[in-house]
Amino acid sequence: MLDASTGVSRALREAPPDRVVEAAGRAIRSALCATNTVVFVADYRINGLWPVLDSRQPEAGAEVDQSVLQRCFSSQRPVQETDDRGRCRLYLPVSVWGERLGVLMVELPDVPGDEVVRRAADIAGEVALALRAADRETDRYRRARRRERLSMAAELQWELLPGRSVSHDTFHLAGQLEPAYTVGGDHFDWSLDDDRLTATVLNGDGIGLAAALLTAVTVNAMRNARRSGGSLVEQAELASDTVYYQHRGHRHVATVLLELDCVTGRVRAVDAGSPHVIRLRGTAVSRVPLEQQLPLGMFAETRYDLQEFELEPGDRLFVVSDGVWAADPSGREGYGERAMARAMRATRLQPPPEAVGTVMRELQAFHADADLRDDAVMVCLDWRGSAGREEA
Hints:
Blueprint: H1 7-14, H2 20-32, E1 36-42, E2 49-51, H3 66-75, E3 79-82, E4 88-96, E5 99-108, H4 114-134, H5 140-145, H6 152-160, E6 165-167, E7 171-178, E8 186-193, E9 196-204, H7 208-227, H8 232-247, E10 253-261, E11 266-272, E12 276-281, E13 284-287, E14 307-310, E15 316-320, H9 322-325, H10 339-345, H11 352-366, E16 376-383, H12 387-391
Antiparallel strand pairs: 1-2, 1-5, 3-4, 4-5, 6-7, 7-16, 8-9, 9-10, 10-11, 11-14, 12-13, 12-15, 15-16
Helix pairs in contact: 1-2, 1-4, 2-4, 6-7, 7-8, 10-11
């Protein structure tokens, strides 16, 4: 048998990017004596998990219970199903760096022992890493993720994202855009460097493609400053000047920039206009008191002040755009008045990727499942504290 840690990795590295799934299947069948394998990926709304099918064999892997896939995906733990003949289906989370991509199903001739399950889980991690890298070189996995056609604006927004989740010894971060297939100007971005997490949430002015283009310029201006070693303030000021000199104050981007010190839990912030920062501490939900400054791009050479606040181990931060906070279908009170806090409290035992889904589903229910009138972006950050890191 192939050694799981070398043979599968080699097969994935040598495979063309659009054939990673097939290479993984061949290697897994050899390494684990499996009879079949299927890779499922989560869609943009994270409403389901869908097989990455070979176009030459469209029927392969289509008959799988979504509830079992969702159980594996949500718990991030292996799940087993055994039929009356003793054959087993093993479901494994396909995740890397905290990013949940999907589920790997492995069919085995009999019930696996703990060592086989461990090896299979390691292989699923290798598959996740390969898929993450291959995604830049082929459209195949993007096609599997979309259940309907993306608008041009949404295509830009999803391509601009760093991912949907990232994990670290001291924090776990996740975000979601809605409406997933037509989102315009709302966006989030993050980067982890030298025990410092920088996260931004943006609410671009306008709708559709114009809003998406405005947000893309703003995000890349902040990235340019950040990658050149610029501080949080310098990131905000470069982005503001860039937007202003493009639009002369007629367009602007409401933004909050956060920088978390992963060792101390101290957060530096620049609040440029809108997205709301909400803290869940125990069962208490409260807004983090930040002084709102001018949105990016309103005036030439706007200067921004830095603010700071502390996180305690176990704290959860939600950052939400006005599309979440101020949603008021049918003239009722805004979602942020009371309903949002109830939804946030309900997520206490869920990890951030599940938490953003819960609050977004409650937002959809608040709209009686009608399409959202406005773009909505949500980011959830759990601060674990540095003690767990020291023990690891």
